[in-house]
Structures are given as C-alpha cells and as structure tokens.
Design goal:
Blueprint (H helix, E strand, L loop, with lengths): L6 H14 L3 H9 L2 H8 L7 H9 L3 H6 L2 H5 L8 H15 L3 H9 L2 H11 L3 H14 L5 H7 L2 H6 L7 H14 L10 H10 L5 H14 L4 H9 L2 H13 L5 H9 L4 H11 L6 H10 L2 H9 L5 H15 L2 H9 L2 H19 L11 H6 L8 H6 L3 H7 L5 H14 L3 H9 L3 H7 L5 H11 L34
Helix pairs in contact: 1-4, 3-4, 4-7, 7-10, 9-10, 10-13, 13-15, 14-15, 15-19, 17-19, 19-22, 21-22, 27-28, 28-31, 30-31
Length: 487
Amino acid sequence: MQSSSDNGNNSCMASILHCLSHHHQGLNAIFTAGGIPALIHMLRPRFDSQLLLHSITSCSTKMAVRMCDGLQKIVPLLKNTNPKFLAITTDCLQILSYANQGSKLIILASGGPESLVSIMRNYNYEKLLWTTSRVLKVLSVCPSNKPAIVNAGGMQALALHLTDSSAHLVQNCLWTLRNLSDAATKQEGLDSLLHILVSQLGSDDVNVLTCATGILSNLTCNNARNKSLVVQHGGVEALINALLRTTVNQDEAELALCAAVNQDMAEPAVCALCHLSGRHPLAQTAQNEVRVHYGIPVIIKLLGQPHYWPVVKAIVGLIRNLALCPANQAPLREAGAIPRLVNLLLKAHQDLQRLSTQNTYQDGISMEEIVEGCTGDPINRSEIANMQTIPLFVQLLYSCVENVRRVSAGVLCELALDKHSAELIDAEGASAPLMELLHSTNEGIEGVSSLYVYSDLPVNALPLDPDVHGPYVSDMTFDPRHVYPEP
C-alpha cells in the first residue's frame, strides 16, 4: 500500500484490512505489521478512505495515529460530501480528540471547527449530525477551539437541531451550546435560540433544564438585547417555574432544598433572573414579573440554605434588583428577606475575620456584594436597625475596601432618617469615620457621607436613589467547565 500507485489494488488491500479489523487478532496484526502509517498514507480526499478510517478507529492505537500526523490527514476529509463517509470521519475525530488537548489544537489549526459547523448547518443525516455534535462537544471545552466554533456560527448551527426528534442529538447540542455560551455573549442572530431555550425550561428532564438555564444565564450576561428578548418570550416566568419545580413538596425545608441548591440548575437560573432584572429597557417589567409569578418566596427560601456561595451571590444580586421596584419591597419583607440578608452579612463578616484576609471570600464572593443586598430599601430600615446591625455597619466604615465603605455609609445614611436609629449611629461613633469619608477621592463615598454629616440640611433626596450607592451588581458569566471539564 505504501509503494503501490494502483488505486484498484490499494482499494482491495484496504478492504482486506477492513475485514481483519473486525477481529481482535486482526487488529493486533495490523498494528504490529506497521499498518497504521500505511493506512494514514492512503488517507486522501480522492481515495475512498472509508474502509481505512474504520480500520484506524477500530484499533486502540490513537497515539500511533497522532504520531503519524493522522489528524492532519483526517480533518481535510471533512470536505467530502458523502454523509455516511463524513459520519465515520467525525467519529474518528471524536475518538482521537477526546481528553487530548494536543489533538484538539491540531483540529483547530487544520480548520476543523469551520468544517464541523458547516456540516451541522447543511446536512440532515441523523447519524452524521450526532457524530459531528459529539466532536463539537469535545472541542467546546477547549479554550482555543471555543471562540473559533462561535465565530464560525456554531451557536446558530447547533440551535437548528434543538427541536429534532432525536433526544441524543438534542442533548449533545445543548451540552455543546452550554459549553460555548460564555464565549458567545456578544454574538448576534440568536433570537431563535433564545426562544427555543425559554420553551425548554418547561422540560422535566434535569439535563435539559441544566443546559437551558446555563445557556440563558451566559447569553443574557451584559447583553441588553438578549435580556429584553428573553423577557418578551416569557423567560422570567419560565425560570421561576423551573425553580419552583425543584422545591415543590419540599416541606422538610432546609434539608430537602439543600440538595436542589447544589444542583447545577439553581445557580444559572438565579443568575439569569438577576441579569433579566437589571440594566436593560425591560428590567422593570422583569422585576414585576418575578413578584407576579410568585418568585420572591422561592428565591428567599433559597437564600436560607447552607451557603453554596455562587448561588448566594446570584440571589443577593437578584434581591438588590428586585428591591428597586417599590411594589416588591413589601413582598420581600414578608418573605423574610431582611433577616436572612442580615444573617448572611453577619456570617460573611465573621468568616472574613476568621480567615484574616482582606476582601477575600469563598468562591469569589466580595463583602461589598453582600452589603449591597441590604441597601436601597427605606421601607424596611426600621427592621434592619432592630436587628442590631448598626455596630457592624459602623465597623465596616473602617474597611480597607472602598466599595464596602461606600455601601456601609449609604446604609447608615438611610437608617439615620429614623431618629432613634440616628441616635444609635451617633452613639456607635460613626460621625468621625463619616467626616473622614467626606474627603474621599471617590465621589460616591463623599456624596453619601455628606448627606449624613450635614443632616441639618434639607434631605429631600432621601431615601437615596439606588444609583447613588453604585452600579448594579455585575452580571456573572457562568463557566460550566468547573462542573463538566470534559464531555
């Protein structure tokens, strides 16, 4: 085979090797006779390589194939137009690239992502689509391949098959989209995908829910257009219903729901709601819909669970956004948001002191994000003060972290509207640090401090507009690789 130029003879010999490869002894014989280099040598677009590919992939000799530059020969075969041949080719690529970063990079350098996306876009042969989606799923966890797949139109191509009758194909596409989604936050033309994902939130399949919520969380991250589209498609109600289904009939509150909190669906679902409730034209609509669709009680219930911090971070941000809507403040109070936020703040502060690390918190949760969850709600300031929080907020005025000082000053400023609270604040010695903050180079800190220090001046601006305290909690991109490092 290596020396012959007669395609007829080579084809016959390839057929013989193909037959031998169906048996274990035949596989060993091909390998020990140096058959892998010969088979790789024969891989070329003009030659019928189908039998050769089967022999290669049947042998447990992936390293030998890589050493013979097999991948560089196989990727160009994706230009073939025979669906059955392409199915074998993509199956071979999946076997060679699985759990091997070097192979993934070779596929990238050989133009593999573009060819694979083209197959997903232009073919309807189910086996080919399934094998191709498997390759893309493997490549989608590679940081280098991920943007290449997205830029080639991978999100749109995969979305075409989310309504396919094959559950296996749909699941492969969903996992791949979930892996790619954190690199696709700025992609355009995803309207249809967003609509389909919202509809899939009604599924009872936990894998479908996990993927759909993760994708929506990322695609709504810092993308106002996508946020508005999801709200228009009923995404808020769908996300809340998905969360409700994880908590329904869980009467043994804390223990039963803890398992649901740690599921992969809870974090991205709450993150998505946080994104939808802030910084886009329909944010206020989303804030109202959370209340209308009975989302506030389940969200607050999640906050009371043992602290799985990524979920807590998302919930605190969501509560902060919801509190910007006046109609939500009473439901938040009635659901017990304030004591749970205060307890969370106290625990965060205690943990921070115990760890003796400045502004470092488990899983990246910053102290100021916990504090901000307690601000911007003047109706509830009496309850906040009654929970003995004033000494803590005064103590936080001395924090080395600028944002912690800013939001703490804002909370004290609002609490000071009540005469009794103002006396408690003064008794705790807050005047001195607030006077120092008047000279801060941070305009937000200086402005909030002045409202307290010059309290004899008109305070028509109070209660403070939430924006005085600073920007919304940043949207959070969800990276599924920390849970699923390899498909």
